[in-house]
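Quick question, first post here. What does this chain look like in 3D?
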Amino acid sequence: MATKKKATEQEVSVEEKLKSLHKLQSYYSEIDRIKTLRGELPLEVADLDDEIAGLGTRINNFELELKQLDENSKLQKGKIETSKAKIEKYTKQLDNVRNSKEYDHLSKEIEFETLEIELSEKHIREHGQLMTSIGEQIATANELLKDKSSDLEHKKKELDDIVSETKAQEEKIREKAKKTETTIEPRLLAAFKRIRKNARNGLGIVPIQRGACGGCFNKIPPQKQMDIKLGKKIIVCEYCGRIMIDPEMAGVLDK
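> Answer (accepted):
Ran it through. Tokens below.
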């Protein structure tokens, strides 16, 4: 059984392997073209999603800060009421002092509580100013959130329209690509995909063009050109690493 499998693999010539790779490349390139039609929309949608999430977090943090400032203001108001009550108590006690020492002590307490009231009132004013500023920032962020949400809705609709137009076409091509992949030995397929991934334009196999690599356009020595034309072995460009195929074998004209 193993011998039979090995014999079947050997029946596939290098030329047939190259043709299969070139066919697969044509499918991949068509899928890439469809993705290009969609342009930057998927990235724009993702960016808008991130921005909206960020705005939501910012607004939530502002609201928490407002709540904390409001609680701090209430705390300061409570301190003012406590200080007022103490001043009232100390003022009444002044009427019954027995000596100057007691009078000085009560006077200092009244003075201290008066300063505490002034300090609390200052904190309340500062909190009020901060709350006004944060309120304005919340309003700005909410307006921006509204605009971004509207943009996102528009972009998503635009993307959905393009996807719906190209989805069926892309699925058919992907099916053809998968079918072609099954005809290529796994190690060669993996190497081809690795080359394609590292290639700037997504081309893993390229035909020779005017005696040069069709990927990086560096000149190919005549002997190597002959080897590529014969199609007896898989040859990669020494400059860009792409697999090279004879244009006639690939079914294209040598431009």
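The two ends are 46 Å apart (CA to CA).
The mean pLDDT is 91.
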